[in-house]
Amino acid sequence: MTRLLLDQGLPHRTLKQLDIPSWDVQHVSDVGLSRASDREILDAARNDSRIIVTLDADFHTILALDSAASPSVIRIRREGLKGRELAELLFAVWPKIEKDILQGAMITVTENSVRIHNLPVFRED
Predict the structure, then answer these.
(1) Which residues are paired to 115 by β-bridges?
(2) Residues 23-70: tens digit of each pLDDT
(3) Are 117 and 75 in contact (CB under 8 A)?
(4) Residue 54, CB-side half-sphere exposure with 13 Å CA sphere
(5) Comparing C-alpha atoms, which of 27, 89, 85, 78 is closest to residue 52?
(6) Nearest to 53 by CA among 87, 17, 96, 22
(7) Partner of 7 for a Cys bridge, out of 1, 14, 54, 120, CB 3.0 to 4.6 A?
């Protein structure tokens, strides 16, 4: 089962669009995380085995700096998406990212590309 956690700033209406049997999708506003810090959201997603979907680059930064192995994060770099558009985008990219995202990855989705960085990201000092 695919378990997603949509971050603040993403349309709540996306939940209805992603309501399919193999997907379990929550929005941070529905689980008491609407005012949570990025670290608190990362911890909640990790504890609940969820993949974060966000507009926020900070999640990728935190994962990289911590050399964390989870949770996976999908960063959408397209502002102003409506619920249906976000759902269609996730459905379109899912076949390209599923294997990596389920093993732990940071994904960036732009208008023209999908970039994948497997977790953990190790830094050379």
Answers:
(1) 108
(2) 999 999 999 999 999 999 999 999 999 999 999 999 999 999 999 999
(3) no
(4) 23
(5) 27
(6) 87
(7) 54
Place of tokens 């985008």: 89
26 touches 50 (CB < 8 A): yes
64's tokens: 């990289």
Distance CA 88, CA 109 (A): 13
Q: The tokens of 24 are what?
A: 């379990």
Q: What are phi and psi of 76, to 5 degrees?
A: -95, 120
Q: How many residues does the chain have?
A: 125
- State which amino acid sits at residue 80: G
Across 78-117, b (16+ Cβ under 10 Å) vs e yields eeebebeebbebbeebeeebeebbeebbbbbbeeeeeeeb
DSSP element (H, E) containing 64? helix 58-66
